[in-house]
Amino acid sequence: MNWPDPSESYTTLGDGRVATAVECPNTLDALQDAVRRRVAEGLAIYAQGGRTSLDYGGTPLRPGVAVDMTALNRVIDYPAADMTITVESGITLGEIARTLDAEGQRLEIDAPQPDHATIGGVYATNSTGPRRYGSGRPRDQIIGVGFVTADGNVVKGGGRVVKNVAGYDFPKLLTGSLGTLGIISHLTLKVKPKPETSAIVCVGYDSIDVVAHDLARLNTSSTRPVAIELLNVPAAKRTLTEANRSLWTIVLAFEDNAASVAWQIDRIAVELSGTVQSVVQGQAIEPIRVALRDLPTANFGSVSIVANVRYSDVPVLAATVDPGLWTFQSHAGNGVIRLHSLVDDSATIEADVHRLRSSVEPSGGNLIVARCPADRKPSVGVWGSSRPDWVWSEKVKAALDPSGVMNPGRFVGKI
Amino acid sequence: MPATVAPAKMADRSVGERLLAALTEAVGEENLLSRRDELIVYECDGYVIEKNVPDVVVFPTSREQLIAVVKVCHEAKVPFVPRGAGTSLAGGTLAVGGGVMISLTRMKRILEINIRDRYAVVEPGVVNVWLTRALAGTGFHYAPDPSSQGACTLGGNVATNSGGPHTLKYGVTVNHVRGLELVLPDGSTVETGGIAEDAPGYDLTGLIVGHEGTFGIVSKIIVNLARDPEAGRTFLGVFDSVDDATATVSGIIAAGIVPAALEMLDNLMIRAIEEAFGFGFPTEAGAVLIIEIDGLEAGLDPDSHAIAEIVRSNGGEVRKSIAWRTRKEPEYVAIWKSRKSAFGAIGRLSPTFCTQDGVVPRTKLPQILRFIMAVGERHGLRIANVFHAGDGNIHPILLFDERDPEQVRRVLIASHEILDECINLGGSVTGEHGIGVEKMEFMPKLFSPEDLAAMVAIRNTFNPDGRCSPSKMLPMGGGCIEKKNPGHHASA
Ligand SMILES: Cc1cc2nc3c(=O)[nH]c(=O)nc-3n(C[C@H](O)[C@H](O)[C@H](O)COP(=O)(O)OP(=O)(O)OC[C@H]3O[C@@H](n4cnc5c(N)ncnc54)[C@H](O)[C@@H]3O)c2cc1C
């Protein structure tokens, strides 16, 4: 089977590859049926949600169909008093947020582009935002999952109650599996009451050594920030107001009742050595919150990378990042560093990717290339050096998708 | 995907001389038991209904010894089962079919504590509370706190994905494990996850936590360290009836408060604890709630007032209010000691008891508790309740006399009725104790044949010959062992 000509299909699968056909099931039965039919035709299955991250991962390996999940977008059950919600996977984060808002609740996941990103896509890509420091990662919110495997069966794990140890934890296994084990059809998530109020405090620095000192101080601060972001000048320019133009900026978010937030704002100014440049509260934080949330998938420059390091290594790596080449945003409390390239010189950028990777991998960190031109992917290496547990990822893949039809070519190793 | 697998090939019942010699060489004579009178201790864990004596118990003291032991078992084709402290309440450590029991209790070193990067690396035999003690004064703690924390091991916690009273706000074991090392049943090893977050590849760490020993043996764990709360308030709410207490639980959650812990004790439990510890629980009360909130001192008052109001509006009374800055304050220690020792106290009410573990959506607590009461009346059984109310995780304790076979029969029927009702109400048959050998027959009630086939396929990937922890968690062809006696067992 051959790839269709891009001029004959409007539906891209990512990296310039286009779909042979598109399925848009609006019931679980239709989804199962579509997978069965298309696999029988010898096609691969590429699930799509809000299409915000189609270039993420390796290049699609074999011709196949796009399965557009956005018509499977219902709330299945929302027992607000149980603080759980069960949804179909094609619903957007924004739609979930509106449903929860009516009961004064929210999902703790602040992934980028909520009006486009579907919850299935967020879970497939393990997409996170600044609030992961205070609220954990997607894996910490999921308690049940259903997914359609290559044979068209629905497989479930977990359930709808917040505590449950019956059976293997498929909800965790599916989180971040990039559609390679099956198409997530529905999920049950924990939700939380919305906090009474929030504040954002921006702190400026002229020296990375002082940044390092304050990040260590924040680790044992008497305050409890829910987000700790570190920005270089180009990242600050895209997210903050004119006033914040120090060499480095730490942005802290606080959420709690009014008394606690007020106390923390006062307290943090005393604890830190940097210069507090601005304090915003209540609704006024929205532009900054949204800008920081969406920066990870902002599509400027041609290359975007994500590195994960020990928390204490964030300033060490930061010191080596050239603000002429990259925007730098770090969820510094979690050791996550996100860079977007600022120049078109691909040789320079690629060399810098390799330099950064060789500085993080030896100490147990990792660096993935979240976005780059398709033709650069082989030389730049999307997922980084092979890890010892990838052979087990490959075996798990073989157990659930033995013929390798789900999203082939996109994930680590031979997955 | 195969729906079932052939039962593991069992070795000869008597362990051959060669195997014993090889195991002795692997761990040394001082780390091996093979005399029947020494082995009898290992015939069961906290679940005493099914018993079987392993052929030999080994106590590797290092990772290298552990790997050597597993390789010996692999080459000799004998089944083996990992065991931590043996506090499992589901028969997770039962040596089904005999074979080699591998006790991890001598792999008990805390290898590293790193406060700046908020992790600790431990061997699997480290007891949960040892880590808490090692962290005292650092401002950090390891969050999952099962009631058995004074005895149970972190390896056992990882294998069963343990919870505890404070998991309501802070999550269960899987939320606090960053990475681990697994010794596969052929003696090879794999490290998953790591100190840095979000390692590319599947979340194998998340999959392995809760595997109940059916993938291999966890030989090293990287756990996350959490900040200590700056302050807290712990309230004792006293109610005339269980219904008033459950209404309060719903009221607190509905008010948008996420307590650090929310535990309920009914009248029978209160009287047992009072008799044992004299903490000052009112013995006339229908139920009490231990309600705890924590956070920044500056922000605790609004929630404190709201909780007091919710308790009152449901006909209850806040009998004690403990304001604390550390979890070491005497009143705080006393109230939690009473709660966590509840099962020890039950012994005063009845010579034998059976603790169940089930979960319902938290709003269904009133229904399930009324159901439990009705079941007790119908079968003429006394049932005490002490449980993690905020999570909807119930622990009815059925009291009986094991010398009376008729009572025993009724206890088994009553337990099954309660667990079936948990499923009916949209819940699960285990919130923290696991499936083990005890609840395998419930798996097909919770999961479809496709779900189970996928689980079996994953189990067979890690454990292709089924030699590690055979006949656990997933029903295999051949059905289940018939239960004749619910025995003693204690729980959370
Ligand atoms: C009084 C009492 C109170 C309890 N309270 C709670 C509670 O609040 N919350 C809760 O969750 N549980 C509770 N439990 C249940 C029990 O303590 C937990 O399941 C605990 O995690 C078991 O730890 P252990 O070291 O005793 O493991 P064991 O009982 O020895 O083993 C448990 C299971 O883990 C496997 N295993 C052990 N070590 C390893 C390893 N290194 N690698 C792979 N598999 C391994 C075993 O094969 C077995 O399947 C309670 C038990 C008692 C007796």
End-to-end Cα distance of chain A? 20 Å
CATH architecture of the largest domain in chain B: 2-Layer Sandwich
Strand order of the largest sheet of chain B: 15-12-14-13-18-20-16
Percent of sequence in beta strands of chain B: 15-25%
Count every beta strand of chain A, where a strand is a DSSP E run of 2 or more residues. Answer: 20
Strand order of the largest sheet of chain A: 16-13-15-14-18-19-17-20
What hetero molecules are in the model? flavin-adenine dinucleotide
Mind describing the biggest β-sheet of chain B?
7 strands, antiparallel
Please state the average pLDDT score of chain A. Answer: 96
Outline the biggest β-sheet of chain A: 8 strands, antiparallel
Number of self-contained structural domains of chain A = 3
Shape of chain B: globular
Distance, first to last CA of chain B:
37 Å
By secondary-structure content and strand pairing, the structural class of chain B works out as alpha+beta
SSE topology sketch:
The complex is a heterodimer of chains A (415) and B (492).
Chain A: E1 12-14, E2 17-18, E3 22-23, H1 28-40, E4 44-48, E5 64-68, E6 75-77, E7 84-88, H2 93-101, E8 105-106, H3 119-125, H4 132-135, E9 142-148, E10 154-158, H5 170-174, E11 183-190, E12 192-193, E13 197-205, H6 208-219, E14 227-232, H7 233-239, E15 248-256, H8 258-271, E16 275-281, H9 286-294, E17 304-308, H10 314-318, E18 326-331, E19 336-341, H11 346-360, E20 366-371, H12 377-380, H13 390-400
Parallel strand pairs in A: 3-5, 4-5
Antiparallel strand pairs in A: 1-2, 6-7, 7-11, 8-12, 9-10, 9-11, 13-15, 13-16, 14-15, 14-18, 17-19, 17-20, 18-19
Chain B: H1 17-27, E1 32-33, H2 36-39, E2 56-58, H3 63-76, E3 80-83, E4 100-103, E5 110-114, E6 119-122, H4 128-135, E7 140-141, H5 154-160, H6 167-170, E8 177-183, E9 189-193, H7 204-208, E10 217-224, E11 226-227, E12 231-239, H8 242-254, E13 261-266, H9 267-277, E14 287-295, H10 300-313, E15 317-324, H11 330-340, H12 342-346, E16 352-355, E17 358-359, H13 365-379, E18 382-387, E19 393-394, E20 396-400, H14 405-424, H15 443-446, H16 449-462
Parallel strand pairs in B: 2-4, 3-4
Antiparallel strand pairs in B: 1-2, 5-6, 6-10, 7-11, 8-9, 8-10, 12-14, 12-15, 13-14, 13-18, 16-20, 17-19, 18-20
Helix pairs in contact in B: 1-3, 8-10, 8-13, 13-14
The complex binds flavin-adenine dinucleotide.
